[in-house]
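Quick question: what would this complex look like in 3D?
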Amino acid sequence: MAERVIALAGNPNVGKSTVFNSLTGMRRHTGNWSGKTVDTAAGRFRRGENEYILVDLPGTYSLLTHSAEEEVARDFLGGDDPDGVVIVCDAACLGRNLNLALQVLEMAPHRPTVLCVNLMDEAEAKGIKLDLDALSSALGVTVVGMSARRRGEAARLGAALDRAFAAPTDLPVPLCYAPEIESAIAARGGERWRALQHLSEDPAMVDGIVSTLHARACEIASAAVSAEGGTACGYTAADARRDRILTGRRTAYPIMLVLLFFILWLTVEGANYPSAWLGALFGRAESGLLGLMEAWGAPAWLTGVLVEGVWRTLGRVVSVMLPPMLIFFPLFTLMEDAGYLPRIAYNLDRPFRACRACGKQALCMCMGFGCNAVGVVGCRIIDSRRERLLAVLTNSFVPCNGRFPTLIALIVIFFAGNGGGAVSALLLLGLILVAVAVSFGVTWLLSHTLLRGMPSAFTLEMPPFRRPRVGRVLVSAVVDRTLFVLGRAAAVAAPAGLVIWGMANVTVGEMSLLGWGAAALEPLGRLMGMDGAILLAFILGLPANEIVRPIVLMIYPAGGSLGEVGSSAALGEILVANGWDGGRAACVLIFTLFHWPCSTTLLTVKRETGSAALAALAALLPTAVGVLLCIVVNVIRGSLL
Amino acid sequence: MEYRLCDLAPGQWGRVSELRGTGGMRRRLLDLGLVPGAEVRCMGRSPAGDPAAYLICGAVIAIRCADGADVVLGEVWEDG
């Protein structure tokens, strides 16, 4: 039995991750924008006697330049590891894709290689026809056409790989450069691609090399492609019409606002009832658990730890978080799948550049709405280190899904009045716009102080729009995102519930540990328009923002029963009974938006930047903003009363 | 008359006659397909006017005006 390592190479956004997933059966997250794969992933699959290990390389346009992704791809392809290569191309955009394919073939002329022409269905829908045999003989390698998003297509690519290994006589047709380049290659000696790599550093040579590559790619493509309507381009007139609206001067920003409002409104409206229902369900299970513990004759402390501590905290986190996530993540993934996110980056590049940052920061910000840790990882799509740090440090200024439920509940209880979901969603939209504005402001501040510098170059591919695959989007949003984030929150909530129950029940003197903590923080809490219990909850909530609210309820006397978690009216009663009013709620809203990110995000910042100091700064910045804003709001409120 | 990339108004197209400049940006523009002789068409501008979107070698790429200043176009045409 042979074990074969296969490199999966291709341009950004040609469906490499989808090919990877359909071959290996893994669910790597996919989306319709460039730079989704910022790290390599490996997966196995077996065909008959042969075991294949597929390595998904970052998408690149070229192997001659120096961005981080291209170096990762080039080092892997140039090393000894890969036994074979699969090059993925977009059928609707063959000319551009073959440029990379030719470079890959130059690097590994002796390796079995399969050219996978993906997205055949999309090309067909756009009236583009491909002659795969012509392509195969022009390149000298096995070519297979597929639509990786359809089921069952992966087997054909697998079979083509088997064939490529069985017939190692296939040799790619070599590329001829201009005589002076060819003689320079010969003069340098060694492997051809290394010589080319070296020569492309030479300003006198690089144009000739790149032009030859492009010319040959276009030549092969135009021989293999016949398009109705004379365009061999995946970007159609319909795409252009959509872009004129979605990125239009008058329409772009209003559409972004309306879409954001619509998502928030659906989340607010839709999450209410399932939350109440889940809360009731957990409450009933709690009574059942209590009955069980009693029947076993368990000691009171054990019942307390397990039921009132672990179970109750878990119930609060799940019932409050799950419904909004189940609505938000699929909607967000739909937009991503359709190709809207790069348009957001395009629309917002100018304002970001005014802050000397990169428009792609908008993409990181969008991911941050889901989870700040994911947003921080996503910052890898920004090439310049300075601009990447700006995006990393300001990511937690936009609220993640762990904070949305708290924001929504407080808005509904204290500010929306009888206005219902639409008013709540509008207020939430306003709050988010404040968060985005502050994140712009902090970006500006940073790029004029600590991270001084001018904006670097910006190029962003705007992919053709794709009809979102609703079924796949649902699965991916629910399984990959919702359950992942919820699982992490629950994994933190259970032990945190245990610890906090302990702190609530271990008394020193006449007060519990929680009581002492809250009392110690009371002066600072008051200064910030809140109270000590809330501040303590934020501190204890460091592992996950989701548990801040359950902790507040656990600290308050009579905050005990589980029934309240879903119903905002009951939650409101408890809060008001503990001295909450609109002013305090406003301060808590502000501090929920702006305080230290959760520990997962901080660890991610440390990993991504390689610096504990920067992670500390990522915590310090939003905290400073939050404390200041809270004090200002509190002082203004005090002077008004 | 010599045109630069951002002289293209939406709907206009031209052919790259020369790529000036040095360093990383030049390489990136080359990789995107802005090689001498390549056709480039302006598809639209972002709401704030800059960057603009260009059709290059079958894909639409957003490029800032300052970054495209080294892309020289020989002639500019407009579809009738």
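Answer marked as accepted. Chain A has a mean pLDDT of 85.
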